[in-house]
Amino acid sequence: MEIKEMQQEVDNWISRFEEGYWQPLVMLARMTEEVGELAREINHSFGQKPKKSSEEEGSIALELADILFIILCFANSMKIDLDEAFKETMEKYRKRDSMRWTPKRGNA
Asked: Mind listing the domains of the chain with CATH numbers?
């Protein structure tokens, strides 16, 4: 699924509800909350803080998908084409960081 299709699917779902998209500050708060949940899962899986026996098993993949959902909502509410924005961002990284890292052998 392409980003444009993801944005459309989210818009179709959100459009079913009278409330529509949240305000930008509310979405930022939600994104921050979801990033915190991702951090907790990463810490449990790779850090020094194991889950308590009473805690349910979490999913890093689902936490990332929750963040993606909020990003798609944010972009839709602000009429941002994420396909286009992503292309521009990758071009920025290609120009800015092309000599920053050590290339793998065999890559030009």
From this structure: 3-97 (1.10.287.1080)
